[in-house]
Design a protein that fits this description.
- The complex is a heterotrimer of chains A (187), B (31) and C (211).
- Chain A has 8 helices and no strands.
- Chain A has 187 residues and is mostly helical.
- Chain A has one domain (3-9, 26-184).
- The longest helix of chain A is centred in the N-terminal third of the chain and has 33 residues, at 34-66.
- With 31 residues, chain B is mostly helical.
- Chain B is built from 1 helix and no strands.
- The radius of gyration of chain B is 14 Å and the shape is rod-shaped.
- The termini of chain B are far apart.
- Chain C has 211 residues and is mostly helical.
- Chain C has a domain at 2-144.
- Classes of the chains: A mainly alpha (187), B mainly alpha (31), C mainly alpha (211).
- Chains in contact: A-B, A-C, B-C.
- Chains A and C meet through helix 2, helix 4, helix 6 and helix 8 of A and helix 2, helix 4 and helix 9 of C.
Chain lengths: 187, 31, 211
């Protein structure tokens, strides 16, 4: 599969949130302000792409070499946690306003299914190094795209007239349903 | 402060060690 | 006893707490997959709650998260290894969602809020209750999705190599059903949305505030 088509597939028809259901927790739980969504999205792009590259290297040059593949889950999580920690430090030093507005949501990226999910998908699909970079970039951009679109819709939803039992999460899920239909059948 | 950090690192290392041991055991038992 | 029922109804992880939704949307296309995923999660939750409740006094606050992650990760890996050896078919049906239990908000969430604060007994009961609640929720969603979307109920197909049984119930199809949308991602979102709304209504119409 060509890199270009891989890139666009991972953003659109195999969108990491709307098709693979990874990254749902922050998607439903936050994403109510546009600015937060963008900050979250950018951080995720960085963490996912870097982690995918590092975990790829560790998987093939360390785990496979020493026949300890079973350690991958733990190893990957440790890499991701370290990446998030690194981001935390870098943000605190250079972009302290962003750091403060993101608050608790930054460490939450560690438990974001999307990050670990992408690194595992890379291994499962046996991507080459270039494909790994393309895929992880594409998936995380897809993630950012979706939570951004969603955040713009969300604010409108919160102030409109919806029956009480549907308010909040159910209506968010229904919106996601419609979005997923659009993304998957974008042709 | 220093004592807490040291204790933290110790616990982490011990946990990591025990976990790897556990996994190794499981592999040996099932092979 | 009350703790267990709490985990099933009052604090149902999927319909009330809305945690750990990733498998709820991804694995619920077949009844069998949902059931097995729920069982795996309950087992892992049980062991991790148990162990964390025991060692909670030894772990200083600054390393709580990495230590818990290590423990949960170890149990997940053990389950992965066992499945890989004894039921490799599950590897393909559960896919990456099995190792993803490590970052499942339910397991980590319960570890932080229950196992690290309450006693061993409460932690175990909580794990059982939440586990049952999670599995029930998963099964319900899967039933709706599979019946409406494919007209079948797969009770035992993937692991038939282990148990020797194969049971797929087929429901009569007509021009209205099956509705294809339910087997796809959109159907998952729709089904979950209705269940959450239903439970909100039953519990007295408290609105789910978006946090």
């Amino acid at each position: 599969m060509s890199l270009i088509s891989l890139f666009f597939t991972s953003i659109l028809s195999q969108n990491i949130i709307l098709t693979r259901f990874l990254g749902i927790c922050p998607f439903i739980g936050t994403s109510n302000k546009e600015k937060n969504a963008i900050h979250m999205g950018l951080s995720v792009i960085l963490v996912v792409t870097l982690s995918s590259i590092i975990t790829y290297l560790i998987y093939y040059y360390v785990l496979v070499a020493t026949d300890t593949i079973y350690l991958r889950t733990i190893m990957f999580i440790l890499v991701i946690a370290s990446m998030v920690q690194l981001m935390d430090i870098v943000l605190k030093k250079y972009f302290i306003t962003i750091h403060n507005t993101m608050g608790l949501y930054l460490p939450l990226i560690t438990t974001n299914c999307a990050v670990l999910g992408t690194t595992l998908l890379v291994i499962n699909n046996s991507y080459t190094f270039m494909e790994t970079i393309t895929f992880s970039l594409g998936s995380s951009i897809g993630f950012t795209l979706v939570i951004y679109i969603f955040s713009t819709i969300r604010e409108k939803l919160d102030t409109s007239d919806i029956s009480p039992s549907f308010k909040g999460i159910p209506i968010a899920l229904l919106t996601a349903a419609i979005m997923s239909l659009v993304f998957v059948r974008y042709i | 402060m220093k004592n807490k950090n040291l204790q933290g690192i110790l616990v982490l290392t011990v946990t990591a060690f025990i976990c790897s041991l556990l996994l190794y055991l499981v592999l040996i038992i099932t092979n | 006893m009350k703790t267990i029922f709490n985990g099933i109804i009052n604090e149902n992880p999927i319909f009330v707490l809305t945690l750990g939704l990733c498998p709820a949307l991804a694995i619920t296309n077949k009844f069998e997959n949902a059931l097995l995923m729920g069982i795996c999660l309950m087992v892992i939750l049980l062991f991790s709650n148990f162990l964390i409740a025991i060692i909670k006094k030894l772990v200083p606050d600054n390393v709580k998260i990495p230590v818990y992650v290590l423990i949960i990760g170890t149990f997940v890996t053990i389950v992965e290894i066992l499945i890989d050896i004894y039921v490799p078919v599950l590897q393909t049906s559960l896919g990456i969602y099995l190792p993803l239990i490590v970052v499942n908000c339910v397991v980590m969430g319960r570890a932080m809020s229950v196992a690290s604060k309450k006693g061993v007994g409460t932690s175990i009961l909580d794990a059982i209750g939440i586990g049952i609640g999670y599995t029930l929720a998963l099964i319900l969603i899967a039933l709706v999705r599979e019946i409406l979307g494919a007209g079948t109920i797969t009770i035992m197909d993937g692991i038939s190599s282990l148990t020797g049984y194969k049971l797929i119930l087929e429901l009569p199809t007509n021009n209205l059903f099956p509705i294809n949308i339910f087997t796809g991602p959109a159907g998952a979102f729709i089904t979950l949305a209705f269940f959450v709304a239903l439970l909100t209504k039953i519990k007295g119409g408290n609105t789910h505030e978006s946090h």
